[in-house]
Design a protein that fits this description.
heterotrimer, A mainly alpha, B mainly alpha, C mainly alpha, B: mainly alpha, two-stranded antiparallel ribbon, about 70% helix, C: mainly alpha, 2 strands, about 0% strand
């Protein structure tokens, strides 16, 4: 693999993933959709990290370790987020991001 | 001995709280011994000062910031310190009578003492920053005093004005003083005063002068900032008498006088002061003449006199310096007396409206005599101290170096002011004591107050007569020392009632003649109404505030519209600019992209499936579709990790992916089916443009750096050593546990907290979910995959 | 590197952190199994005890400088002093929660350990010398705060605030990790000192440096988000207004202190050679922050929301010290400002709590009408806090603002200092408006404020601190002076 796939291709893939995630976060009205978009962005970071690690820094494994952290922390964040979506829904009876705007000004 | 003088008042202020006990007026006179002691202490220091020396004391307070607690006593400080403590003594005693019925007297006196300490700090400070700290402390304590009681209809507006004007001016002053310190390299007054030539030649000189003058003009109520002072008059009368005539408002004059040897002598300083001061003096005198409220009348005459003092500093010269010092003392005496008398009348008659007063000569003869004395001095009638002061003012105008035009204008302005003062004084006196008692005031029993209450106004009023008759020699010494500090050089001063027939006397006498002749038109003058709007500083100020408020409100309403996705968009856009700028400016040239032909089909598959999955996630119209698509992305990322020989990572990724999918399914089971709603088409296009721009940027950024080859792969080290040293067979595990134990601990904490949070969020909701949703989620019965068409 | 060695570990250097984390974990168990519902105040007392112990454990570490865990964690006087400040913030926040939670009927035992975890995240940020540690610190702090923000469950706004905070926070975290990944790709390390060494060897044309800059920009944005710099401040007003008042108080000083402490390290250990790039950007952000925060506050009639905007403005003043932290005076001003701001702002929020009754929001400007007549001491305390926040002497706020402005002026940013003064003039307006409302208006039947022991202690401590530091700042100055020396390595 190391010799087969050039680094730029992987990095481009990651960048594409990041941006599509961003688009999702921007254009989804549904709160869960927004959260999913953010999750995709984090996945992109992991691809980056692992690619960098594999190509440049296999000695230290910092990249891999960090990727694991991100996976875990992202999962934690997503879990809290989903729990919160449920709570919001019970109250506002909507999960449309734009309808939750009592706080403003 | 200078420290104690400042700090006794500050520290003793809580003592004043005992005045909440009965026999309040007696206690107040007892408390008056505190300022009296300070007066005495100041006098003990007077000897060397009057001989032309300075008393200096210094301790470092915050050396890191150049803040030293330096206290200096020179002639100018001495004059002010004596006025502050002397009048302060009388005010404290007077307040005991004025507010005797009020249980809040103790608190009032405590604030008053605090204010007195702050004011003493201002005039004794030998360091500009120390002075500034006390300067602001006078503002702060004055708010407390204003807030003590408020019987003014416009109370809040007035207080807002005084807060904003003096507060903003204070900041300007701070910057000006900082500039001064930067130019001189020291914040000590003595260094600044010694560096006059250096300052005047400095390029920052105009900026510093303008900022400092802003601070002084606002504090001393010069046009166009004069409007806050009448508004501040809702303070109880003892506070008005002390703060708004004798002391606080003179802080600006004090600072200008103090700095004039260093900053004066340029057209910018001299002409500005002369013109602004002269205009304030004349304008306020005319306005004062037309008031019907006793305190408002006195407030405007105070503004007028502050203008006169400012003007004299600008006119400069020997007589200017002498005039400033003499007028400060004369004004402090008669004006504090008049304010206290206004309080007496208000106290006895229940009103201070000139239209409702009258005929009090029969009921309050003692009050009338004292008032007459104070008014004679105010009007500048010969043999009173006010006359001596006015003569010096005229001399300053006649002898100024600022040219014939300004000299003539100044003399004319003084003459007009003198006439207006006379008419004001006459209106005050005749409407209060002469004529018939008005029916409104008739209902109340009116009498001279207890003698204790008349001591306050009586002493300064009588002094206004005694100083020129008996005490002229010692007072001359004091004035000489004070004016030397203003002039910057020692001065020989001989105050006198009679200087022979000179231009000043002629102007003065003709003004008196004209003034007295106009007494019969006084009420007509007062009843002419209507000022053009541009003269109403308070109205302009109000509009300014209003505009700013509406502007700020509109701004926040637009920016902060409460919608989450707007916030995300703004963040993303800024991000784009931030990362884009360095990228475009530094690294565009290095992009290269060469796809290696030896790709395996599974690699292509993984790489292709990820974007497809992602797009599917984003576009998914059903919830199940979205979940599946997210799952595919996760699985493909895991596959990618495998391809990169990171199996542990891949396993973790897969595990988490499975968990997330399960969790998402669970969540969806309690949420409504509706999922697919997107933004409108153009909004989506906008979002797409932002995202694509970001994509190009990100892609370009990483591509630009694909040349990096500075790290040699050395994974074998970990592989060889992990079993041996880390006692583990799985490299990543070993690293997590041993080599990066710390962050792993942190990570576990994060997970733990998240768990805790979810538990809390869900458990909390169980028992307390008292809000019934309007729309009951129907998901439990509906299949997850059912497409729903509720496009919004 | 000939042999792989497991890095030596010196737990002593993270003693306060360890105490907080283990105490919080233990407290959680104790709370679950031994403390009955309705007596959860006991948990609060134990949490305070834990924070106090953590502070005491730090005492012998004064003057120690060292790294452990392979250089990922650093202890120096800078970190230690900030740790103490953070512990103080935690203690004051818990004290004001003791009565607030039962009054609002949201008392749950885990609240107190959560605050402790948040404090541990802040300490981690002050001690972190590695991007991964900083990431963990930020996440520890953030996830805790997401939960705490949504703690006032029956209130709709609390839910909304939590949701907004979480989504935006996760979004910012995405940028943060992407930035770290890029920095890692550019330099091959996440260790701040190694990044710094790498950057020092390269010229600005180097492509890796470009990548480093791109990554750094993303990380800076994430920090700006946490520290509420405009235009990443959007979450602040909504989140502060919606969250339980003690949580808003804690957040206003906590996230700022933590995130900016980490930013100081990042800027001056990893990126000092690149300051030609980041300084103008951060200076621009700071100016914008001061303007937006203070202008926004003018428009608010809701005092809690006003304090939220004001906290944005204050983030700008803190940044003045952060940006010039390469000079001795920078970090001094930073620590001093955080401490003073913590006292004044926590005090102001405590006053808000005293006015807040169950289920009611008594934060409108009109709710302060005539407070002086109703509860003179409370009004005077609030006046002290407002004066301090406005930077009026002789309160500590003046000293702090003066210090920060001097630092910026001497550090080569005089124009920014002037912006600071101008915006302070704007700020005076809305702080003083509260004072006028309290002192100049007649009360109109507002209920009497509730002052219980915890709140009283909080308010008295904060007010006394604000005044005493304003009058006798020399001891604190001496402390921050010595704390700032070790920076810049």
């Amino acid at each position: 693999m190391l010799n087969a796939v050039p680094l730029p291709a992987v990095l481009t893939l990651a960048a594409a993933l990041f941006c599509i995630g961003l688009f999702g976060a921007l254009s989804r009205r549904n709160l869960i959709g927004v959260l999913m978009g953010v999750e995709l962005m984090l996945n992109a970071v992991n691809i980056n990290l692992v690619a960098f690690w594999r190509y440049f820094e296999a000695r230290y494994i910092t990249g891999q370790t960090f990727a694991i952290f991100i996976i875990a922390v992202a999962a934690a964040e997503a879990a809290v987020g989903l729990a919160m979506v449920i709570a919001v829904y019970r109250h506002y009876v909507t999960v449309q991001a734009d309808e939750i705007d009592r706080l403003r000004g | 001995m200078l420290y104690p003088i400042v700090f006794i008042a500050l520290v003793a202020s809580p003592l004043a709280l005992i005045a909440r006990l009965p026999a309040r007026s007696l206690i107040a006179w007892g408390l008056a011994f505190i300022p009296l002691t300070l007066f005495g202490l100041t006098l003990t220091q007077a000897g060397p000062v009057l001989a032309g020396e300075q008393v200096v004391e210094e301790i470092s307070w915050v050396p890191a910031l150049g803040l030293n607690l330096t206290f200096t006593l020179d002639g100018l400080s001495l004059l002010f310190a004596l006025i502050i403590t002397g009048i302060g003594t009388l005010i404290v005693g007077y307040a005991g009578h004025y507010l005797g019925a009020d249980s809040g007297l103790g608190r009032f006196l405590a604030y008053l003492m605090l204010f007195m300490g702050a004011m003493l700090g201002v005039v004794l400070a030998g360091n500009v920053l120390t002075m500034f700290v006390f300067w602001e402390l006078t503002s702060v304590t004055s708010y407390l005093l204003i807030g003590y009681k408020h019987d003014y209809p416009d109370a809040r507006r007035g207080a807002l004005h005084s807060l904003l004007v003096t507060g903003g001016g204070g900041l300007a002053l701070l910057v000006g003083l900082l500039l001064l310190g930067q130019m001189v390299g020291s914040y000590e007054f003595r260094d600044i005063l010694a560096a006059g030539d250096q300052l005047r030649a400095h390029s920052l000189y105009p900026a510093a002068v303008i900022l400092i003058l802003l601070g002084c003009f606002t504090k001393s109520a010069q046009i166009p900032f004069h409007f806050w002072l009448p508004g501040a008059m809702q303070a109880p009368t003892p506070a008005s008498a002390f703060l708004h005539s004798a002391t606080m408002v003179k802080a600006g004059v004090y600072l200008m006088a103090r700095l004039s040897p260093a900053l004066g002598g340029t057209a910018l300083w001299d002409v500005t002061l002369a013109v602004v001061g002269g205009a304030t003096m004349t304008f306020a005198a005319i306005v004062a003449m037309r008031q019907f409220d006793l305190k408002a009348m006195l407030a405007y005459t105070t503004i007028s006199m502050l203008g006169a003092l400012t003007m004299q500093i600008g006119l400069g010269g020997k007589y200017g310096a002498e005039g400033v010092a003499t007028n400060i003392l004369a004004h402090a005496l008669y004006k504090s007396a008049l304010f206290m008398l206004a309080g007496v009348i208000d106290h006895e008659c229940g009103t201070r409206d000139l239209r409702r007063l009258g005929g009090l000569r029969r009921y309050m003869p003692q009050t009338m005599v004292i008032t007459a004395l104070a008014l004679l001095s105010f009007g500048g009638i010969p043999i009173m101290f006010g006359f001596v002061a006015k003569e010096l003012m005229l001399e300053a105008a006649l002898e100024t170096d600022l040219g014939a035009t300004l000299s003539i204008l100044a003399v004319a302005a003084i003459a007009v002011t003198a006439i207006a003062y006379l008419i004001t004084g006459w209106r005050l006196f005749s409407n209060t004591f002469l004529g018939q008692r008005s029916t409104a005031a008739m209902q109340q029993h009116v009498d001279d107050p207890t003698p204790g209450m008349l001591i306050g106004p009586g002493v300064p009023a009588i002094l206004s007569l005694f100083i020129p008759l008996v005490l002229l020699a010692p007072v001359s010494t004091l004035i000489a020392a004070a004016s030397a500090a203003i002039y910057g050089k020692p001065l020989e001063v001989k105050l006198a009632l009679w200087h022979g027939v000179n231009p000043a006397l002629l102007v003065s006498l003709s003004a008196i003649v004209i003034g007295v002749a106009m007494f019969r038109f006084a009420e007509q003058l007062a009843n002419m109404r209507g000022w053009p709007i541009w003269l109403r500083g308070d109205m302009i100020f109000d509009r300014l505030i209003e505009r700013t408020l509406t502007g700020a409100t509109a701004l926040t309403r637009t920016l902060q519209e409460g919608r989450l996705r707007r916030y995300i968009l703004i963040t993303a856009l800024t991000m784009l600019i931030f990362v884009g700028v360095p990228f475009i400016s530094f690294g565009l040239g290095a992009i290269r992209f060469d796809l290696d032909p030896q790709l395996q089909f599974y690699e292509i598959l993984a790489a292709a499936l990820i974007p497809i999955g992602v797009i599917a996630t984003i576009k998914a119209r059903t919830r199940l579709g979205a979940i599946i698509a997210v799952g595919v992305v996760g699985a493909m990322v895991a596959l990618l990790f495998v391809l990169f020989s990171a199996p542990d990572l891949a396993l973790t990724q897969l595990l988490i992916e499975v968990l997330s999918t399960v969790f998402l399914l669970l969540v969806f089971s309690v949420l409504p089916v509706r999922f697919e709603s997107f933004s409108s088409a153009w909004v989506r296009q906008r979002d797409a443009i932002v995202a694509i721009a970001m994509g190009i940027l990100m892609g370009g950024l990483v591509l630009a750096t694909a040349t990096n080859d500075s790290f040699a792969p050395l994974a074998p080290f970990f592989l060889e050593n992990s079993l041996d040293k880390g006692k583990g067979a799985n490299v990543v595990n070993v690293i997590l546990v041993d080599f990066r134990g710390f962050d792993t601990l942190g990570e576990i904490t994060v997970l733990f907290i998240a768990l805790l949070g979810i538990y809390g969020l869900l458990r909390l909701r169980q028992g307390k979910d008292d809000v019934t949703p309007e729309r009951v989620p129907t998901t439990a019965t509906e299949p997850l995959s059912e497409p729903v068409n509720t496009q919004r | 590197m000939d042999a792989l060695t497991i890095p030596p570990v010196d737990l002593g250097l993270i003693a306060p952190l360890l105490v907080v984390v283990t105490w919080a974990t233990g407290l959680l168990l104790v709370d679950t199994f031994f403390i009955p519902v309705g007596r959860k105040k006991l948990t609060g007392y134990l949490a305070i005890a834990g924070l106090v112990v953590a502070g005491l454990v730090g005492l012998p570490l004064w003057g120690v400088s060292g790294s452990t865990f392979g250089g990922m964690v650093r202890l120096d006087p800078f970190a230690l002093t900030l740790t103490w400040v953070f512990l103080l913030i935690g203690i004051l926040s818990i004290t004001m929660s003791l009565d607030y939670l039962p009054r609002q009927d949201i008392e749950q035992g885990e609240y107190y350990p959560l605050i402790m975890f948040a404090v541990s995240g802040m300490i981690l940020l002050a001690q972190g010398a590695d991007l991964i540690v900083l990431f963990l610190g930020i996440e520890t702090l953030s996830i805790t705060l997401y939960i705490l923000t949504g703690f006032a469950y029956p209130r709709l706004t609390s839910e909304e605030a939590a949701m907004k905070y979480l989504v935006l926070g996760a979004f910012a975290a995405g940028f943060f990790v992407y930035g770290i990944a890029l920095i890692f790709g550019a330099t091959g390390s996440t260790r701040l000192s190694e990044i710094g060494a790498y950057a020092a060897d390269r010229d600005l044309g180097d492509t890796n440096l470009t990548l480093l800059l791109g990554g750094a920009a993303m990380v800076l944005i994430a920090f700006s988000f946490k520290a509420a710099l405009a235009p990443f401040h959007m979450w602040i007003p909504d989140v502060y207004q919606g969250s339980p008042t003690p949580v808003a108080a804690f957040m206003s000083v906590g996230t700022k202190g933590g995130a900016l402490a980490a930013l100081v390290r990042l800027l001056f250990e990893a990126l000092p050679t690149l300051n030609a790039y980041w300084l103008p950007v951060l200076a621009g952000l700071t100016a914008l922050t001061m303007v937006v925060g203070n202008l926004g506050a003018i428009a608010q009639m809701d005092v809690k929301r006003m304090l939220a905007y004001s906290s944005i403005g204050h983030a700008g003043y803190v940044m003045l010290g952060v940006m010039v932290a390469g000079e001795q005076r920078g970090p001094e001003a930073f620590i001093f400002y955080i401490l003073v701001y913590a006292l004044s702002n926590l005090g102001a929020f405590a006053v808000l709590i005293a006015l807040e009754h169950q289920g009611e929001e008594a934060w409108q400007l009109d709710d302060f009408a005539g407070l002086y007549q109703r509860q003179p001491l409370l009004a005077v305390a609030m006046a002290i806090f407002m004066f301090s926040l406005a930077g009026v002497p002789p309160t500590a706020g003046f000293m702090a603002k003066f210090y920060a402005l001097t630092a910026a002026w001497e550090g080569g940013l005089p124009w920014l200092a002037l912006v600071g003064v101008l915006t302070s003039a704007i700020a005076a307006f809305f702080y003083l408006r509260v004072i006028i409302r309290m002192f100049m208006t007649e009360p109109e039947g507002e209920p009497a404020p509730e002052l219980n022991r915890g709140l009283t202690i909080d308010i008295v401590v904060a007010a006394a601190g604000t005044i005493i530091i304003g009058l006798i700042p020399a001891p604190i100055f001496a402390l921050v002076e010595r704390s700032a020396v070790a920076l810049g390595g």
